[in-house]
Specification:
The chain has one domain: P-loop containing nucleotide triphosphate hydrolases (Rossmann fold, 3-Layer(aba) Sandwich), CATH 3.40.50.300. About 50% of the residues lie in helices and about 15% in strands. The longest helix has 24 residues. It binds adenosine-5'-diphosphate (ADP) and adenosine monophosphate (AMP). The site of adenosine monophosphate (AMP) has 18 residues, from helix 2 and helix 3.
Length: about 220
Protein backbone atom coordinates (compact mmCIF):
# COMPACT_ATOMS: atom_id res chain seq x y z
CA UNK A 1 0.00 0.00 0.00
CA UNK A 2 1.34 3.43 -0.99
CA UNK A 3 -0.46 6.43 0.42
CA UNK A 4 -0.18 10.12 1.18
CA UNK A 5 -1.58 11.75 4.34
CA UNK A 6 -2.57 15.31 3.61
CA UNK A 7 -3.78 18.01 5.95
CA UNK A 8 -2.71 21.34 7.41
CA UNK A 9 -0.21 21.41 10.30
CA UNK A 10 -2.01 20.06 13.37
CA UNK A 11 -4.75 18.29 11.39
CA UNK A 12 -3.72 14.96 12.94
CA UNK A 13 -1.51 13.32 10.31
CA UNK A 14 1.12 12.08 12.77
CA UNK A 15 -1.56 10.92 15.22
CA UNK A 16 -3.36 8.89 12.55
CA UNK A 17 -0.04 7.59 11.19
CA UNK A 18 0.75 6.09 14.63
CA UNK A 19 -2.51 4.15 14.42
CA UNK A 20 -2.16 3.16 10.77
CA UNK A 21 1.24 1.48 11.27
CA UNK A 22 -0.31 -0.71 13.97
CA UNK A 23 -2.82 -2.15 11.49
CA UNK A 24 -1.12 -1.96 8.09
CA UNK A 25 2.39 -2.84 7.00
CA UNK A 26 3.54 0.47 5.57
CA UNK A 27 6.57 2.70 6.17
CA UNK A 28 5.75 6.06 7.79
CA UNK A 29 7.79 8.81 6.15
CA UNK A 30 7.38 12.28 7.64
CA UNK A 31 9.52 14.93 5.96
CA UNK A 32 9.13 17.10 9.07
CA UNK A 33 10.50 14.27 11.27
CA UNK A 34 13.36 13.70 8.81
CA UNK A 35 14.28 17.39 8.89
CA UNK A 36 14.14 17.49 12.71
CA UNK A 37 16.38 14.43 12.84
CA UNK A 38 18.81 16.05 10.39
CA UNK A 39 18.76 19.27 12.45
CA UNK A 40 19.59 17.40 15.64
CA UNK A 41 22.46 15.63 13.85
CA UNK A 42 23.56 18.97 12.34
CA UNK A 43 23.93 17.47 8.86
CA UNK A 44 24.14 19.75 5.81
CA UNK A 45 20.45 19.16 5.01
CA UNK A 46 19.56 19.84 8.66
CA UNK A 47 21.46 23.11 8.87
CA UNK A 48 19.97 24.27 5.58
CA UNK A 49 16.41 23.30 6.63
CA UNK A 50 16.68 24.96 10.04
CA UNK A 51 16.73 28.49 8.65
CA UNK A 52 13.35 27.89 6.97
CA UNK A 53 11.71 25.77 9.65
CA UNK A 54 12.49 28.29 12.40
CA UNK A 55 10.56 30.95 10.45
CA UNK A 56 7.62 28.66 9.69
CA UNK A 57 8.51 28.66 6.00
CA UNK A 58 8.74 25.71 3.63
CA UNK A 59 12.12 24.15 2.95
CA UNK A 60 12.93 24.63 -0.78
CA UNK A 61 11.39 22.05 -3.10
CA UNK A 62 14.72 20.72 -4.47
CA UNK A 63 15.98 19.92 -0.98
CA UNK A 64 12.75 18.25 0.12
CA UNK A 65 12.30 16.30 -3.10
CA UNK A 66 15.87 14.95 -2.86
CA UNK A 67 15.25 13.74 0.70
CA UNK A 68 12.06 11.93 -0.35
CA UNK A 69 13.60 10.47 -3.49
CA UNK A 70 16.44 8.94 -1.47
CA UNK A 71 14.07 7.59 1.18
CA UNK A 72 11.60 6.00 -1.24
CA UNK A 73 14.42 4.12 -2.96
CA UNK A 74 15.21 2.14 0.22
CA UNK A 75 14.47 -1.60 0.53
CA UNK A 76 11.90 -1.31 3.35
CA UNK A 77 9.71 0.88 1.13
CA UNK A 78 10.09 -1.53 -1.80
CA UNK A 79 8.90 -4.30 0.50
CA UNK A 80 6.14 -2.62 2.55
CA UNK A 81 5.12 0.52 0.65
CA UNK A 82 5.07 4.11 1.89
CA UNK A 83 2.85 6.43 3.89
CA UNK A 84 4.00 9.99 3.23
CA UNK A 85 3.15 12.55 5.93
CA UNK A 86 3.75 16.23 5.22
CA UNK A 87 4.87 15.65 1.63
CA UNK A 88 3.95 16.87 -0.93
CA UNK A 89 3.15 20.42 0.17
CA UNK A 90 3.49 22.22 -3.18
CA UNK A 91 2.37 21.41 -6.71
CA UNK A 92 6.02 21.13 -7.77
CA UNK A 93 6.53 18.49 -5.05
CA UNK A 94 3.36 16.66 -6.11
CA UNK A 95 4.61 16.56 -9.70
CA UNK A 96 8.04 15.39 -8.53
CA UNK A 97 6.39 12.66 -6.48
CA UNK A 98 4.56 11.35 -9.56
CA UNK A 99 7.97 10.84 -11.20
CA UNK A 100 9.69 9.43 -8.11
CA UNK A 101 6.82 7.00 -7.49
CA UNK A 102 6.91 5.86 -11.11
CA UNK A 103 10.69 5.35 -11.00
CA UNK A 104 10.48 3.11 -7.93
CA UNK A 105 7.43 1.37 -9.39
CA UNK A 106 5.18 2.39 -6.49
CA UNK A 107 2.32 4.57 -7.76
CA UNK A 108 0.12 6.28 -5.15
CA UNK A 109 -2.95 4.21 -4.25
CA UNK A 110 -4.74 6.99 -2.39
CA UNK A 111 -4.40 10.39 -0.74
CA UNK A 112 -6.19 10.80 2.60
CA UNK A 113 -7.06 14.41 3.35
CA UNK A 114 -7.64 15.04 7.06
CA UNK A 115 -9.85 18.06 6.85
CA UNK A 116 -9.80 20.56 9.75
CA UNK A 117 -10.74 24.25 9.71
CA UNK A 118 -7.75 26.58 10.22
CA UNK A 119 -9.34 28.12 13.34
CA UNK A 120 -9.08 24.79 15.18
CA UNK A 121 -5.40 24.31 14.39
CA UNK A 122 -3.84 26.99 16.57
CA UNK A 123 -5.20 25.28 19.67
CA UNK A 124 -4.10 21.86 18.41
CA UNK A 125 -0.54 23.03 17.74
CA UNK A 126 -0.08 25.10 20.88
CA UNK A 127 -1.15 22.17 23.10
CA UNK A 128 0.97 19.54 21.32
CA UNK A 129 3.78 17.85 23.24
CA UNK A 130 6.01 14.97 22.22
CA UNK A 131 7.84 12.16 24.00
CA UNK A 132 11.59 12.83 23.77
CA UNK A 133 12.34 9.13 23.77
CA UNK A 134 9.92 7.57 21.24
CA UNK A 135 8.29 10.54 19.48
CA UNK A 136 4.69 9.72 20.50
CA UNK A 137 2.46 12.78 20.19
CA UNK A 138 0.10 14.07 22.89
CA UNK A 139 -2.10 17.06 23.53
CA UNK A 140 -2.59 18.91 26.82
CA UNK A 141 -6.38 18.80 26.50
CA UNK A 142 -7.34 16.42 23.70
CA UNK A 143 -4.90 13.56 24.21
CA UNK A 144 -3.07 13.69 27.54
CA UNK A 145 -0.91 10.75 28.67
CA UNK A 146 -2.92 8.17 30.64
CA UNK A 147 -0.62 8.62 33.65
CA UNK A 148 0.43 12.22 34.11
CA UNK A 149 4.03 12.78 33.02
CA UNK A 150 4.54 9.22 31.70
CA UNK A 151 4.55 8.27 28.01
CA UNK A 152 1.84 5.66 27.25
CA UNK A 153 4.05 4.00 24.66
CA UNK A 154 7.53 3.78 26.21
CA UNK A 155 7.17 4.93 29.84
CA UNK A 156 9.60 7.84 29.46
CA UNK A 157 9.09 10.95 31.64
CA UNK A 158 10.74 13.36 29.25
CA UNK A 159 8.67 15.47 26.85
CA UNK A 160 9.27 18.53 24.67
CA UNK A 161 7.35 21.15 22.73
CA UNK A 162 8.41 21.73 19.11
CA UNK A 163 10.15 25.10 18.61
CA UNK A 164 7.87 25.81 15.63
CA UNK A 165 4.71 25.12 17.69
CA UNK A 166 5.36 28.29 19.69
CA UNK A 167 2.83 31.04 18.89
CA UNK A 168 5.27 33.30 16.97
CA UNK A 169 5.87 30.61 14.32
CA UNK A 170 2.45 28.93 14.23
CA UNK A 171 0.75 31.88 12.53
CA UNK A 172 3.17 31.97 9.63
CA UNK A 173 3.22 28.16 9.25
CA UNK A 174 -0.53 28.08 8.90
CA UNK A 175 -0.56 30.98 6.44
CA UNK A 176 2.10 29.36 4.22
CA UNK A 177 0.40 25.96 4.26
CA UNK A 178 -3.15 27.24 3.72
CA UNK A 179 -2.04 29.03 0.53
CA UNK A 180 -0.77 25.76 -0.93
CA UNK A 181 -3.62 23.55 0.25
CA UNK A 182 -6.36 24.17 -2.33
CA UNK A 183 -4.22 23.61 -5.46
CA UNK A 184 -2.92 20.35 -3.95
CA UNK A 185 -6.43 19.14 -3.17
CA UNK A 186 -7.42 19.90 -6.77
CA UNK A 187 -4.32 18.10 -8.08
CA UNK A 188 -5.19 14.82 -6.35
CA UNK A 189 -8.91 15.19 -6.85
CA UNK A 190 -8.33 15.50 -10.63
CA UNK A 191 -6.27 12.28 -10.50
CA UNK A 192 -9.17 10.52 -8.75
CA UNK A 193 -6.98 9.71 -5.74
CA UNK A 194 -8.46 11.96 -3.03
CA UNK A 195 -10.34 10.65 0.02
CA UNK A 196 -11.55 13.31 2.43
CA UNK A 197 -12.08 12.63 6.13
CA UNK A 198 -13.60 15.02 8.66
CA UNK A 199 -10.69 15.64 11.05
CA UNK A 200 -12.76 17.54 13.61
CA UNK A 201 -13.98 14.41 15.36
CA UNK A 202 -12.46 12.38 18.18
CA UNK A 203 -9.16 10.72 17.27
CA UNK A 204 -10.77 7.24 17.36
CA UNK A 205 -13.61 8.31 15.09
CA UNK A 206 -11.23 9.84 12.58
CA UNK A 207 -9.25 6.61 12.63
CA UNK A 208 -12.25 4.38 12.01
CA UNK A 209 -13.00 6.38 8.82
CA UNK A 210 -9.35 6.29 7.74
CA UNK A 211 -9.15 2.56 8.38
CA UNK A 212 -12.21 1.74 6.30
CA UNK A 213 -10.85 3.81 3.41
CA UNK A 214 -7.50 2.01 3.57
CA UNK A 215 -9.15 -1.41 3.74
CA UNK A 216 -10.95 -0.65 0.50
CA UNK A 217 -8.05 0.80 -1.48
P1 LIG B 1 0.06 16.85 12.27
O1 LIG B 1 0.96 15.63 12.21
O2 LIG B 1 -0.98 16.85 11.18
O3 LIG B 1 0.80 18.15 12.34
P2 LIG B 1 -0.61 15.86 14.94
O4 LIG B 1 -1.03 14.46 14.67
O5 LIG B 1 0.72 16.07 15.57
O6 LIG B 1 -0.78 16.76 13.62
O7 LIG B 1 -1.76 16.52 15.85
C1 LIG B 1 -1.63 17.86 16.34
C2 LIG B 1 -2.11 17.94 17.78
O8 LIG B 1 -3.52 17.73 17.83
C3 LIG B 1 -1.49 16.86 18.69
O9 LIG B 1 -1.26 17.44 19.97
C4 LIG B 1 -2.56 15.75 18.73
O10 LIG B 1 -2.51 15.04 19.98
C5 LIG B 1 -3.85 16.56 18.61
N1 LIG B 1 -4.89 15.86 17.82
C6 LIG B 1 -4.70 15.04 16.75
N2 LIG B 1 -5.89 14.60 16.26
C7 LIG B 1 -6.85 15.17 17.04
C8 LIG B 1 -8.30 15.13 17.06
N3 LIG B 1 -8.99 14.39 16.18
N4 LIG B 1 -8.94 15.85 18.01
C9 LIG B 1 -8.25 16.60 18.90
N5 LIG B 1 -6.91 16.69 18.95
C10 LIG B 1 -6.20 15.99 18.03
P1 LIG C 1 5.78 19.17 9.94
O1 LIG C 1 6.47 18.30 10.94
O2 LIG C 1 5.16 18.39 8.81
O3 LIG C 1 4.83 20.14 10.56
O4 LIG C 1 6.94 20.04 9.24
C1 LIG C 1 7.73 20.94 9.99
C2 LIG C 1 8.45 21.90 9.05
O5 LIG C 1 9.37 21.17 8.19
C3 LIG C 1 7.56 22.69 8.09
O6 LIG C 1 7.01 23.85 8.70
C4 LIG C 1 8.52 23.00 6.96
O7 LIG C 1 9.39 24.09 7.30
C5 LIG C 1 9.38 21.75 6.88
N1 LIG C 1 8.79 20.78 5.95
C6 LIG C 1 8.26 19.55 6.25
N2 LIG C 1 7.79 18.96 5.14
C7 LIG C 1 8.01 19.82 4.11
C8 LIG C 1 7.73 19.82 2.70
N3 LIG C 1 7.11 18.78 2.12
N4 LIG C 1 8.11 20.90 1.97
C9 LIG C 1 8.73 21.93 2.54
N5 LIG C 1 9.00 22.02 3.84
C10 LIG C 1 8.65 20.99 4.62
Amino acid sequence: MNIVLMGLPGAGKGTQAERIVEDFSVIHISTGDMFRQAMSEKTEVGLNAKSFIDKGELVPDEVTEAVVQERLAKDDVQKNGYMLDGFPRTIAQAEALQTIAKNVNKPIDGVILIDVKPEVLVERLSGRYICSNCGATYHKMFKPTKVEGTCDVCGSHDFYQREDDKPETVKNRLKVNIEMNTPLIDFYSDLGLLYKVDGEQEIDEVYSKVKSILQNL
